[in-house]
Automatic annotation (TrEMBL):
Family: Belongs to the metallo-dependent hydrolases superfamily. Phosphotriesterase family.
SUPFAM superfamilies associated with the record: Metallo-dependent hydrolases (SSF51556)
Name of the molecule in the record: Phosphotriesterase-related protein
Record carries keyword Metal-binding: yes
Keyword list, A-Z: Hydrolase, Metal-binding
Family annotation (InterPro entries): Metal_Hydrolase (IPR032466), Phosphotriesterase (IPR001559)
PANTHER family hit by this protein: PHOSPHOTRIESTERASE-RELATED, PHOSPHOTRIESTERASE-RELATED PROTEIN
Keyword Hydrolase carried by entry: yes
Amino acid sequence: MTAAAEAHHATGATITVHLEMGTGALDVLDLLCGKSGVPPHRVVLGHLNRSPDLVVHRQAAEYGCYLAFDGPSLAHHATDWRMPEAVRALADAGFGDRVLLGADTTTAAARSVDGGPGMPCLLRRVRPRLAHAVGEELVERILTENPGRAFGTEWR
């Protein structure tokens, strides 16, 4: 984390954090944003779908970081069906602009159009379910505007 913070301070690049099982979000934010001085809007916390703790999600969003629900295409994850509820809770609390989606595609097969499940699943299966929960307008922003802000270049 210290090296990531130093790299951020040298480059301005966004720091993305792999939270194993979606836990430790607040500790990571205390370290990166508190101790190391990284602006919260330059931090993305990943795998929050794996820990459907809506209180922690909201507390992390209150920091100002981005929350990535980036594993919903893996059908064997028992928490995937809760992801729309978590996104709706964040949106209802005014944090829809802090949400990111992804497919955690770490293998070539998962990234391929004909492979599975990856991005095709995210767009064909997850997007409609999420749109049903929070509306198409917010889903469109989550897929376009939010990542643009999260990963956009900041000039000093």
